Amino acid sequence: MTDAFSLPPEAAEPRLTVAATTLERLRTVPALAPRYAGHPVGVRTLGELAALPPLLKDDLNTALTHLEPRAEAAATWLFQSGGSTGAPKVGYAPTGFYMAGVHAHWPVLDREDVFANAWGAGRMWGAHFLAAALADRAGCRVIALGSITREEYPDWLAFLADRGVTAIGGTPSVLRLWFAHARAAGLKLPSLRKVLWLGEAWQPQLEEDLAAVAPQARRWGMFGSTETWVVGTNTPDCPADTFHPLPEQLVHAGADGLLDFTTLDPAMLNPVLRYRTGDAGELTACPCGRPGRAMRVLGRRDNVVQVRGLGLHVDELVARAEREPGVSRAQVVITEDGGRATGVEVLLLAAPGAGPDPAALRAELLAGTFTLSTAFQHDPEHVTVRVADALVSNDRTGKTASFVVREEAS
Ligand SMILES: [Zn+2]
């Protein structure tokens, strides 16, 4: 069982005192206490840890509402951690955002760098601030860009080129916009070496734009959530879906293929004890050769969505659409009426200056996707493909999911 953990027992078990303290805190939460009854009071071994029930986002928010943790010697920041309904769910962190550990193990930025921080700031988003904390540790120059509008790309790109920007960071969706606009405008960022990303899976199409705009640039990834903060990092030598966990993050791959995370950092404010982000994954050796177990993230389990009783693999559909010439990004929008899918629409974001052919792609998707052709056998007109000005994004999280479900107005 212990081989399902990122650390061997001799490295992890002496630090499980932190997990034991987290368990004590969780037992004080009235709504969560019953689930820990019958488990040992402490946590001494990896086996005992694996026997504890996992926590989900709602559980963690229930716990935070009760515990209201506060940082010892800094401000306590509230960041939003998404959630699909109601008010934003929150995660807490002290100033610094635990980035000292990331800086110690991830040699991405140094004093010579000029770093453009393109993660959105404000609206309780965390990534901009944690990237700023990393830059602070590195002692580099920082350009706090945040998010910009479509018309502003050319001017800002010219500014970044003038300033000799060596590093840029953002979610892959946002980076895609930056590099697609640069490519369309024929602008180059010759000094750019490092592309930092966090928040979504890497998009392989970015490599094509990077090759044209910034041929020296390589990707550097972080994996984490607003509950766990940064769990692991990778370098250009690692596959884009494989991350090396930080020593203060204990990663567990369950028998069901889902990852869960336990903090070994006594300063962590969120009670992260077998916390599940919903990501599936496995522990593996990284081809980069760095010793120790790496974590391969296989994507979110919830990206298979039920359409008229059949499982639709949204990521496969999106990947197929994004292979189409002239398509910059794609998104699946499922319309439901009382829980039944009434239509599936694939939205396409055209690459600047390109005009993809929605009709041809629709025919290909219908013919090649068993779920679509079967579920819509009698009303294929409800499967549509169209070019849109923008994809549907979540205003609260700033993320653009690969699929969106909408309730039909009745
Ligand atoms: Zn590696």
UniProtKB/TrEMBL annotation:
UniProt keyword list: Ligase
Domain of life per record: Bacteria
Every AMP-dependent synthetase/ligase domain range: 66-237
One Gene Ontology term of the molecular function aspect: ligase activity
InterPro entries: AMP-binding_CS, AMP-dep_synth/lig_dom, ANL_N_sf
Pfam families, per the entry: AMP-binding
Cross-referenced PANTHER family: BLR5969 PROTEIN (PTHR43845)
Descriptive protein name: Phenylacetate--CoA ligase family protein
Organism: Kitasatospora misakiensis
